[in-house]
Amino acid sequence: MHTNTIEMDSYILCASMYCFTTGFSSKEEWMLGVCFLIALILTAMYKTEYSANTPVFPLNNSITLCLSVVFLMHFIERFRRHCIQREPFFLFNLKKEDKI
User: Fold this and answer.
1) Distance CA 12, CA 79 (A)
2) Exposed, middle or buried by CB within 10 Å (0-12, 13-18, 19+), for 15?
3) CA nearest 14: which of 2, 26, 32?
4) Are residues 8 and 47 in contact, defined by beta-carbon separation less than 8 angstroms?
5) How far apart are CA 73 and CA 53, in angstroms?
6) Rounded to an integer, what distance in angstroms lies between the CA atom of residue 91 and that of residue 100?
7) DSSP sequence for 43-88
8) Can you tell me the mean pLDDT for 38-61?
9) Within the chain, how many helices (H) and strands (E) appear?
10) Of 23, 63, 58, 24, nearest in space to 41 by CA
11) Is residue 85 packed enough to be buried (19+ CB in 10 Å), middle (13-18) or exposed (0-12)?
């Protein structure tokens, strides 16, 4: 939850960059699309709090919800890849013939 110790603009940009990087690091196309869409929405929220006296939607809750959704999707994808499918976590530790 945003505690107002950092500015809302910084919180929005950090959340947007997290969504972009999480989407681009994924091997799933649907996750890239969802994360990219969420990041674009967050980027559109930048400076909206200061354009009017009363925001249309509560920025604090919506950004925290977006971060939670992306984190949960990323956690499930990584759990499936590394625990269920047994894909190695660090590929640079493998010999050349073992790499995927």
Assistant:
1) 27
2) buried
3) 2
4) no
5) 34
6) 8
7) HHHTTTTTTSSS-SS-HHHHHHHHHHHHHHHHHHHHHIIIIIS---
8) 72
9) 3, 0
10) 63
11) exposed
Burial class from Cβ neighbours inside 10 Å (0-12, 13-18, 19+) for residue 76 reads exposed
Question: How crowded is the C-beta side of 59, counted as CA atoms within 13 Å?
Answer: 25
Which of 31-48 are b and which e, b meaning 16 or more Cβ less than 10 Å from the residue's Cβ? bbebbeebbeebeebeee
Instruction: Please say whether the beta carbons of 42 and 35 come within 8 A.
Output: no
pTM above 0.85, yes or no: no
- Chain segment 52-68, per-residue pLDDT in tens: 455 556 667 788 899 99
Separation CA 5–CA 97 (nearest Å):
50
